[in-house]
Structures are given as C-alpha cells and as structure tokens.
Amino acid sequence: MLKDYFQDLISLFYPRVCLACGNTLYKNEHMLCFSCHYHLPKTNFHLQEDNAVARQFWGKINFSSAASFYYFTKGSKVQHLVHQLKYKGNKEIGSHVGKLYGIELKKSPLFSTISVVIPVPLHPKKEAKRGYNQAEWFAIGLAESMNIKLDITTLLRVHASETQTRKTRFKRWENVKEIFQLNDPEQLTGKHILLVDDVITTGSTLEAAGHELMKIPDVKISVASIACAVR
C-alpha cells in the first residue's frame, strides 16, 4: 500500500505517458498504452518471404529474410515512438519493442534458426554524444525474448558518416559503403545472424553492414527493424 501511495504521488508530478501517443499510462501499462500496443500499424512481414522490405534488397545483397515490426509514416505514432527512442533518451522503449517483436519472430519459420543478433553500430563519437546506440537497445530486447546471443563487438563502425536525411539512394550508399569493418569474425562462421536497425528507409546502411558481414564464411544474414518507410 505504501509503495502504491508513493508511485501515485510520483505520477502526480511526473506522469507516465505512452511513448507513442502521449496519453497517460494506467498502472498495468508500461511504455505503451494498451491501445497503441494493439493498434500500431504492424507489417507482419516476418510471415512473408516476399515483402516490401525484402524487395528493397533484391539484386543488391542476398539477405535470407527481411522484416520490420511497424509501418513508419511522417507524423504518425510510430514516428513519435522512434523519435522518443532516438532523440529523447528513452532508450528503454527500444528494448521493450524488441521484446515484443522477438516474440513474433520466434514464431516465424523464416527467423527460427537465428542464433545471434547484431545491431548496426554507431560511430564511437556519435554514440558518446547520444549516450547510447538506439539499434543496440532494440537488439537487447530481441536477444532476450528470442533467447539468442547479443553481439556488439564483431561489427564495428570505423568511419563517421553524414546524416542520411534528404540524400538520394545513391548518395546514401556512397555515404556508408566503406564505414564498417569486422573484428574477430571467425566466431560467427556458419551462423545465422539477425542484423537490426531502428528504421529502414532505402536500406543503404543495412546493405553496407550486410556486405561486410557476408565476408564471414558460410554465414546467413536476415535483417529486421522497428519500422520501415515502405509498403
């Protein structure tokens, strides 16, 4: 009772809100309200081998499977959620969404053989400035709910890139094509890797990271993200 009293008192001055819609959360709600939990626009791409995200990479890189949890549109609740994760310091929402998506991915035959998840890394200077890597927090949740290994040491970002905003697809690729390298990759020989990022737009960053990981012998790579800007 005393604990509930203090929680109510704290909520009075620092209300807990849904990180997608901004509405006040009830006691049994965490990060997302029940309405957003059930009604945010899910893609269900993890159940479809041929989907809009997978088609982005056809003819460019041989990913085994590709999927995103939500559809991303400007001004949407999903954009607000990603903004909270990426720019407002709410890194725990990444882990929370990762756990939710991991439960779904475990049910899919396309993702059932994955044994390790690797987040797209930030350049150390950028990560130090932000304080964390948003893709890594998404990967933390995925690894926990899928019961697989989290690897943040094999794929390294060795060159800082400019922002991808307002760049054409070709310029985005030119911006990221040589920014990754591998560290002790032999440990992943023959593994099925899940490479993850926060949002997929043109897919240039994932493509560049994927090309580097493809240097590992007998490796199999699938990709996933919190959201995608394609339909």
Task: Describe, in plain words, how this protein is organized in 3D.
The protein is an alpha/beta fold. The protein has two domains: 1-39, no CATH class; 40-228, 3-Layer(aba) Sandwich (Rossmann fold). Helices cover 38% and strands 16% of the residues. The protein has nine helices and seven strands; from the N terminus they run αααβααβααββαββαβ. It has helices spanning 2-13, 34-39, 52-57, 77-87, 92-106, 124-130, 134-146, 169-176, 204-213; strands at 66-71, 116-119, 149-150, 155-157, 180-182, 192-200, 220-228. Strands 1-7-6-2-3 form a five-stranded parallel sheet, sandwiched between helices. Helix 9 (204-213) links the parallel strand 6 and strand 7. Helix 5 (92-106) packs parallel to helix 7 and helix 8 (169-176) runs parallel beside helix 9. The radius of gyration is 18 Å and the shape is globular.
Overall shape: it is globular
Largest sheet data: 5 strands, parallel
Identify the CATH class of the largest domain: Alpha Beta
Might you state the CATH topology name of the largest domain? Rossmann fold
Q: Distance between the terminal alpha carbons, to the nearest Å?
A: 48 Å
Mean pLDDT over the residues: 90
Number of domains: 2
Helix content: 25-40%
- Helix and strand pattern: HHHEHHEHHEEHEEHE
Unreliable segments (pLDDT under 50, ≥5 consecutive)? Answer: 5-13
Radius of gyration: 18 Å
CATH 2nd-level architecture of the largest domain: 3-Layer(aba) Sandwich
